[in-house]
Design a protein that fits this description.
By secondary structure, the chain is mainly alpha-helical. It has five helices and no strands. α1 packs across α2, α3 crosses α4 and α4 crosses α5. It starts with a helix and ends in an 8-residue tail after the last helix.
Length: 173
């Protein structure tokens, strides 16, 4: 029984670690996006939107894990790695954009904007913005799934060695 408990604890730790890695990646992307908006749009406050970026990263990380659990894109795993990465990046970008649109609609219903809202002059929804966000999500997820898929193919230990220890013998491959 102690072996089963230890195994369960390791699984929970591994899952939590994976969630934190996904969250950190998405948080970094959304924070850079928020910083970009605060520089480009004078009415956009970085500090005011940083909390929203953090919450969105938490929610998006959960949806990425749900998509992974449901094996979204796994049917493509027999294709060359470049296609697997692009297909998964596209599918997960669609999931994230879908949930982003759903979130916008829910926020609109719960807290309708009036003319006095601070961001009322900044169009953050619509087809153009959605396509822009979808493109950014797709491109941003390519390195994420590139590393994930290489880890799946090469194994965690080999990837850890490549990233943190380097190649001991470059000819060994």
């Amino acid at each position: 029984m102690s072996d089963a408990g230890a195994h369960h604890g390791k699984t929970v730790f591994e899952r939590m670690s994976h969630f934190l890695i996904v969250f950190a990646y998405l948080w970094l992307l959304l924070t850079v996006y928020t910083l970009h908006n605060s520089v480009v749009l004078p009415e956009w406050s970085f500090i005011a939107h940083l909390g929203s970026a953090t919450l969105k990263a938490l929610v998006f990380a959960k949806f990425v894990l749900i998509g992974e659990h449901l094996k979204l894109g796994s049917r493509s795993e027999s294709l060359p790695l470049v296609w697997v990465v692009l297909i998964k990046a596209a599918l997960f970008a669609l999931v994230l954009i879908g949930f982003n649109l759903l979130e916008e609609r829910l926020v609109e219903v719960v807290w309708p904007r009036d003319g006095a809202a601070g961001d009322a002059g900044i169009p953050m929804s619509g087809v153009t913005t959605t396509l822009s966000l979808a493109t950014m999500a797709f491109v941003s997820l390519i390195p994420f799934f590139g590393i994930s898929e290489m880890t799946r193919v090469l194994g965690e230990e080999r990837m850890r060695d490549l990233f943190f220890r380097g190649l001991k013998d470059p000819k060994a491959g």
